[in-house]
Design goal:
With 108 residues, the chain is an alpha+beta fold. It is 37% helix and 29% strand. The chain has two helices and five strands; from the N terminus they run αβββββα.
Length: 108
């Protein structure tokens, strides 16, 4: 695949996808592969939109492949929130009805 064909394809994708997806410039590596970065615009409540990486298209010997960018921070944060929720639920359950026996002394 020629570099000009790749640029034409990227321009076509840019036109179809609107402004929320950003395709980077094609980069040629020393082994003949072509790499194209893909990002999307993350719009915050205020301020300018920030580009967030989505993945990479790599073309090696005419075969394209897609490698997604994985956000490990988001996965770790989700695990921490689930652990925190489990700890809160367990604490509330123990405070409401403790698992140890009732050892109060009653006269009677």
């Amino acid at each position: 695949m020629e570099i000009m064909e790749i640029r034409d394809a990227v321009e076509r994708f840019r036109g179809e996808s609107g402004t929320s997806t950003i395709f980077g410039e094609p980069h040629q590596t020393s082994d003949g592969s072509t790499i194209i970065t893909v990002s999307r615009l993350h719009r915050r409540w205020r301020g300018d939109p920030i580009p967030v990486p989505v993945g990479v298209f790599s073309i090696h010997e005419g075969e394209p492949s897609w490698s997604p960018a994985v956000d490990h921070t988001r996965a770790a944060l989700m695990g921490e929130f689930i652990g925190l929720a489990a700890a809160v639920i367990a604490t509330l359950a123990v405070l409401r009805r403790p698992p140890w026996p009732d050892v109060t002394i009653r006269k009677g």
